[in-house]
Inverse folding.
């Protein structure tokens, strides 16, 4: 009997050793899913969709509740995440803003290095859009008017280091045109400003603008992408439109506070990997015209360094004052 018990104990130990690391941790209460935008912003839309898929596909034992911490161009959300050190039930959607904002804002208390990388999910192209009844049929039309009437036209966007404004700065530097930039805290407000005629143009992700484009409320005049998207085969990229500026990449993924054990990171890494393998997620990427950018935690940590260096160069070229 003693020998039999020893064999059973040894077998159990071996099974536990062979089990995946993430099996050691599972969330036991709702997970706070933090985003830096208000309702309707790109990060908010993505987080809510992911939460729905987790529930629909029964991928997690608890609910993921979206928590909007907008303000400060993402700095408020970043501080909120960084100060939740050790919290195993908090994750956040990061975007390129989380890497670029601290580069130009001395008041930023934290950088992406003060968080734990979990996964990169998508790379997002963007659209340059005007109101459907605007006189600008092409990006050249908009640039020409901005050159003829400096500071008259307006663009809605996010923070000053967001892709929206970086694209603007690069275009103005390349062409000599000049137009105003009005910052709004949420994607819904940015779109409302354009549709209400309060601004003349915006750089917007396909997922944010999709319904308005289908309804005929917006006209897409250029694409911020390496190649034309399948949904807009007749709309040129910025480079095809004749403007030789760098393509500004938008990235979205997941981070969480520091001070969490490796098995916690492994659990969330595995959870999101399982998400990316669902048919629902694959259809979502196709519908939103996103690129699959899945990357695991260790690789993502290296990517943060590379992306930050690239954006530091682009921001410097665009004329921004870099402080880090």
């Amino acid at each position: 009997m003693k020998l039999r018990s020893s064999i059973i104990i040894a077998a159990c130990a071996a099974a536990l050793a062979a089990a995946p690391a993430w099996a050691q941790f599972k969330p036991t209460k709702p997970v706070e899913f933090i985003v830096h935008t208000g309702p309707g912003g790109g990060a908010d839309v993505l987080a809510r969709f992911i939460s729905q898929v987790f529930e629909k596909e029964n991928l997690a034992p608890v609910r993921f509740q979206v928590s909007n911490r907008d303000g400060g161009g993402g700095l408020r959300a970043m501080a909120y995440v960084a100060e939740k050190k050790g919290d195993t039930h908090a994750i956040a959607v990061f975007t390129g803003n989380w890497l670029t904002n601290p580069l130009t804002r001395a008041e930023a208390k934290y950088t992406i290095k003060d968080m734990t990388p979990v996964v990169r999910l998508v790379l997002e192209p963007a659209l340059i859009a005007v109101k459907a009844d605007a006189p600008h049929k092409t990006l050249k039309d908009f640039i020409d008017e901005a050159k003829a009437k400096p500071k008259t036209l307006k663009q809605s966007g996010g923070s000053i280091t967001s892709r929206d404004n970086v694209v603007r700065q690069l275009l103005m530097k390349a062409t000599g045109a000049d137009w105003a930039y009005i910052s709004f805290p949420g994607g819904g407000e940015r779109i409302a400003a354009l549709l209400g005629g309060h601004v003349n143009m915006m750089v917007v992700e396909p997922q944010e603008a999709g319904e308005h484009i289908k309804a005929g409320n917006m006209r897409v005049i250029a694409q911020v992408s390496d190649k034309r998207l399948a949904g807009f085969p007749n709309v040129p990229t910025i480079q095809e439109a004749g403007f030789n500026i760098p393509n500004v990449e938008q990235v979205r993924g997941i981070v969480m506070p520091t001070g969490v054990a490796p098995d916690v990171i492994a659990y969330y890494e595995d959870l999101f990997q399982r998400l990316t393998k669902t048919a629902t997620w694959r259809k979502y990427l196709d519908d939103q015209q996103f690129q699959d950018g899945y990357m695991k935690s260790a690789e993502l940590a290296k990517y943060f360094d590379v992306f930050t260096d690239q954006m530091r160069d682009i921001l410097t070229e665009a004329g921004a004052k870099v402080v880090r």
About this structure: The domain at 19-124+250-317 is CATH 3.40.190.150 (D-Maltodextrin-Binding Protein; domain 2). The two ends are 67 Å apart (CA to CA).
